[in-house]
Fold this sequence. Notes:
By secondary structure, the protein is of the alpha+beta class. Helix content is about 50%, strand content about 15%. The protein has helices spanning about 5-20, 30-40, 45-55, 65-75, 80-105, 110-120, 135-155, 155-170, 175-185, 195-215, 225-240, 245-255, 260-280, 290-305, 310-355, 370-385, 395-400, 485-490; strands at about 360-365, 390, 405-415, 420-425, 435, 450-455, 455-460, 460-470, 475-480, 495-500, 500-510, 515-520, 525-535, 550-560. The longest helix is centred in the middle third of the chain and has 46 residues, at about 310-355.
Amino acid sequence: MSRWKTTGLAAAIVILFLVANRGAYRGYFQDDDLDNLFWTPHVDTIDYLTGLVSPVFSRKNFRPVGHFYFHVMERFAGMRFAPYVAVLQFIHLCNGVLIWLVLRRLKLHPLAAVAAALFFLYHPATFDAYWQPMYVFDLLCGTFCLLSFLAFIDRRWVISFLCFVCAYKAKELAVMLPAVLAAYEILVGERRWKPLVPFFAVSLLFGIQALISNANTNNAYTLKVSTATLLNSAIFYLPRIFAFSLASIAMLSAVSLLRDRRAWLGLCAALLFLIPLLALPGRTYSVYLYVPLIGAAVALASVLDRTKAWAALLFLAIWLPFTFVQMRVYRRAALTAADENRSYVSGLADFLHTSPQTTAFIEDGAPAAMHWWGVRGAILYLSKKRAIQLAAINDSEATALLAQPHLAVLSWDQVTRKLQITKREPDTPEESYISMRSGMPIWQFGDGWYQRENFYRWTKPEARATLRRPEGALKLEVSVNIGAIHIRDLPKVQLEVFLDGASLGVQDFTTAGWQKRTYSLKPAPAGIANIEFRTSPAFHPEGDPRVLGIPIGGFGFVDDR
Length: 561
């Protein structure tokens, strides 16, 4: 292929990629991104260099190569999302070039190499890698694995070793790279083993430390090696390598029938890089296939190399439309999550600008792509504080926060997709009526409540709250939202309400929908009243581990007129 044809083809691939992924620039930060944006700028550059050369396994999951990306990007881009994506996509395209170079070093046909590179660049399993900054670790791990492999093929041992260390310090998946290089020597190379000694020494050093650190832990990053665990993880990952099961089976069959050692090298590389993922059943995400797909690309190119040119063209004619269809589905979900996170963080920013003295926060629901560490990272980053107090409403720590003089309750409204913040100062009065549609005075909720869901909040079979009883109040109102499944499983739901320990009576609910019930009160002086809700029977919805009482949309004292 001439230089002009190569340049034109490369330009066309880049333009096609950027056009297909232009929606990524309308995305937004996810929870891991916000957490990294908070702390990485405060780490000195020398600490990243120290982490890079340190032989000690990081128990805090410090990945200096990947985290340095956030360190640099935050300094130049702040909270502007587009530059983060531009760098991600540049790295990904560079990885496509590196795959092309690896395949050409393996003397594969140019058209087969192009098809395999496009297979890697447009793979639907790894869309997240060049849409979300938090997956920069996978991108950079792939970059340095490819650089190490290229240098190893060219017999530049020192450069290859240094790139291997950088790959591991980007993501621990690279611990399997020495085994991949050994497979190269066995299947394709000259079987020179001495250069591999430092690679395996470093791999064993970190591997043994990881196993020791893994002992006596039980979290999402705990390695679990059992037949059931490995099988379930394999069932999750293997079909996704070629995006659908039949293609995976066909690919494996084609490789097994070939005598081409390069095809076996690619298959070995994919499976070797996959091994650490199989032992992490708590972290099964298709984007983690980014590095194993390097091996899959080598295997694919080897299969296409044995056919005529039309086979590669036919593969691209099927593969590219398929991935673009998948991308449309992914883009819709990704941009929905981005809009929700942007709205949430924007609401936080507005509040923190006007209430800088607030340091205690209770999280009462959040967007699906925003976990508590993302909320914490956003608050710390936007407020420029080094420490805050944050707890979810269902956590035991939330009770202690209710005593804080400056408290903010962060309630996410899934219907309007906006953040509602209720602020309490030392002189904030108690509410006499609480509506789940507006601000949440969580400090008036006692035991027995779950997180808010749209315009209502589920209670446990018993739940408590306090209200300010106005002068002359003679009625208490409760608004509930009985669901169709709820009333199907429990034809009659009974709610008994207590005021200061005295029963106000029992009300029955036998139909679905929004309903209000009122309870008559005896005259009593104004003041703080204790409310208790008792629901029977308890509701156990299928697939939900919670024990539920009744979904309350609002309750409080109402005017008797």
